[in-house]
Structures are given as C-alpha cells and as structure tokens.
Amino acid sequence: MPCGRQWKHFEQKVRVLAMSANNSLETTGRPQRSSRGGAPHHDGSSARQELPCRWLAHALRDWPIRQIEINIPLSDSQRAALYDLTASIYRAVGTLIASCPTEASSTPLGEIDVKRKRANALRQAAGIIRPVLDRFEGTLDEGQKMRLGQVIGGFNDEN
Q1: How many beta carbons lie within 10 A of that of residue 85, not counting itself?
Q2: Measured distance CA(44)–CA(46) in Å, rounded
Q3: Is-contact 137 1, C-beta < 8 A?
Q4: Is the dihedral of CA 57, 59, 65, 66 positive or negative?
Q5: What per-residue string of b and e applies to 8-22 under the rule 16 or more CB within 10 Å gives b?
C-alpha cells in the first residue's frame, strides 16, 4: 500500500514533532530554549513554539487533493471518499489551529503545559485524518493505490 507507507512517514513526522514538544522535560527536567532564545515573533509568540503546529497545518493544506483527482481515474463513490478525506483534512487543520497554543509561557511549568497541549493537538489532527484516509484507500484497486503512492511521493519530493 504505497499510500499507507506515505501516511506512515507523515505520521512519523507528526510523532517526532509531538515528542519533541515534551522531550526537553524528560531529558533535561526543564524546557529547552530555542536558538533564538525564545525570542518573540511579531505576533508575540516564539518561532520554535509555532513550528510543529504551523508545519502540520501547512502540510495538510498542501495535501495534493487536486493532483489525486486529476491523475487517478475515480468512480463516483471513490470521488466522494476523496471529498470526505478533503473535508477531514480541513477539519483537522481547524482543530489544530484552535487547539494548538501559540502563546509563550513565562514559567517552566507553563511551558510544559503548552508543550503538552501542542503534542495533544498534533496527535488529535492526525487522528481525525487517519480513519478517513484508510476508508478512501480501501476504495481503491491496486493500480489506483500505486498511482496514489506516486502522486503523494512526487508531492513529498516537491515539499
């Protein structure tokens, strides 16, 4: 299942981002400081804190739905499953943006809480998409799955 392998790679990135949100506490007993020293962005939040959520939201918004639709001949039921996947992607992005804290904390315990919330938001976004992606992939025959893997693989190479 090429799509399954690509999704697993994507999920691994999400897990790494989620684990890194809590990693500094477990390894050092205190939150890590960014190379910029946690310097605030123009909107008051730090670049390091926003990175996992912003990266995932960007990656989800850029999921190659149109390329899939153009490059893989789909039946009406398969197209409906693709649209369900598209809707779940945008629901996940909305949930991610709403759930993922962007504010910095001025205390170590507050920073830990922010990191936990961020990790939970990343996991929740992946959890919204996974079952719908599995249903879509389940509607495809082997040839379509191969083409899907190629489309997603080409998309990953571009980004």
Answers
A1: 19
A2: 7
A3: yes
A4: positive
A5: eebeebbeebbebbe
Q: Which two tokens mark 53? A: 């959520």
Give one word for 37, left, alpha or beta, with left for phi > 0 and alpha for psi -120 to 50.
left
**pTM of this structure:** 0.66
Main-chain dihedrals φ then ψ at residue 67, nearest 5 degrees: -65, -35
Alpha helices in the chain (DSSP H): 2-28, 47-61, 65-71, 76-99, 108-139, 142-158
- Rounded Cα distance between 52 and 62, Å, is 15
Q: Which amino acid, 36? A: R
Quick: pLDDT tens for 5-46: 556 665 655 555 555 544 433 444 444 433 333 344 344 444
- pLDDT, tens digit (0-9, with 9 covering 90-100), for 88-131: 999 999 999 888 887 778 898 988 988 888 889 989 998 999 99
